[in-house]
Amino acid sequence: MYESERDKLIDELTSQGITDVFVIKAIHDIPREKFVPEALQHQAYKNIALPIGKGQTISQPYTVAIMTQALKLEKGLKVLEVGTGSGYQAAILLNMGAQVFTIERDFDLYQEAKKKFDKMEMNIACMCGDGTVGWNEFAPYDRIIVTAAAPDVPKSLLKQLKIGGIIVVPVGSRTTQIMHVVVREDEEKYSTTKIPAFQFVPLIGMNGWKDD
Ligand code: SAM
């Protein structure tokens, strides 16, 4: 099911500059339709964000692909995701061989994602809480991915990144952001490259935007 739509999406992602074959494979393998509401399943392979309830979205496949590619994953790396949402991005990371930890602040979305992971036998550690402060218990991480818009790269997350690790975060206003890809070169030294331009829902929390 959805085979031709999925192939078309993969062609589109390739033409948009997604070259990492493992990212392409993961997008091919993970059934996005299982991570969107039933009524929207027919749109699962469109290259668009879709609503998942509670005012939140599953990110556009291009966004998932470019962020995942920027992480430069290798099998066995420990990855923290902030913003579980539907659970799709976490499933992509798991498919690529990462050890995945994910945090969601909304209890209903957290519960739904956890149920999905259990049903699909995906070994993903998830918790409900404010991801702007990270998940200290399992730190440090090789990679961190933040899937909501932050006013700045949260300092507490930088501290939970291993030396040589990479964090990918959309940074900007509540409405448009630039993707920051930050490498922790040393204890206090970071280098940043940037990819324009994205539109995420806001990261709400102690080191994010205030709830209103
Ligand atoms: N990665 C998700 C997926 O694959 O479906 C998409 C994430 S959605 C664009 C952003 C998510 O971040 C929302 O579910 C939102 O509730 C969550 N969020 C916002 N602020 C957060 C915070 N401080 N900690 C954890 N999750 C947060």
Structural class: alpha/beta
Q: How many structural domains?
A: 1
Cα end-to-end separation: 41 Å
- CATH class reads Alpha Beta
**Count of extended strands:** 9
Radius of gyration: 16 Å
Give the helices and strands as they follow along the chain: HHEEHEHEHEEHEEE
Brief digest:
The chain is α/β, with parallel strands linked by helices. It has helices at residues 3-15, 21-29, 61-70, 88-95, 107-119, 155-159; strands spanning 50-53, 56-58, 78-82, 99-104, 125-128, 141-146, 161-172, 177-184, 190-198.
Structure description:
The chain is an alpha/beta fold. The protein has one domain (3-198): 3-Layer(aba) Sandwich (Rossmann fold), CATH 3.40.50.150. The protein has 6 helices and 9 strands. It has helices at 3-15, 21-29, 61-70, 88-95, 107-119, 155-159, and strands at 50-53, 56-58, 78-82, 99-104, 125-128, 141-146, 161-172, 177-184, 190-198. The strands form 2 sheets. A 7-stranded mixed sheet has the order 5-4-3-6-7-8-9. The chain has a two-stranded antiparallel sheet with strand order 1-2. The mean pLDDT is 97. S-adenosylmethionine binds next to β2, α4 and β4. S-adenosylmethionine binds at residues 56-59, 82-83, 85-86, 88-89, 103-106, 109, 130-132, 147-148, 200-201, 203-205, 208.
Layout of strands and helices, then pairs:
Blueprint: H1 3-15, H2 21-29, E1 50-53, E2 56-58, H3 61-70, E3 78-82, H4 88-95, E4 99-104, H5 107-119, E5 125-128, E6 141-146, H6 155-159, E7 161-172, E8 177-184, E9 190-198
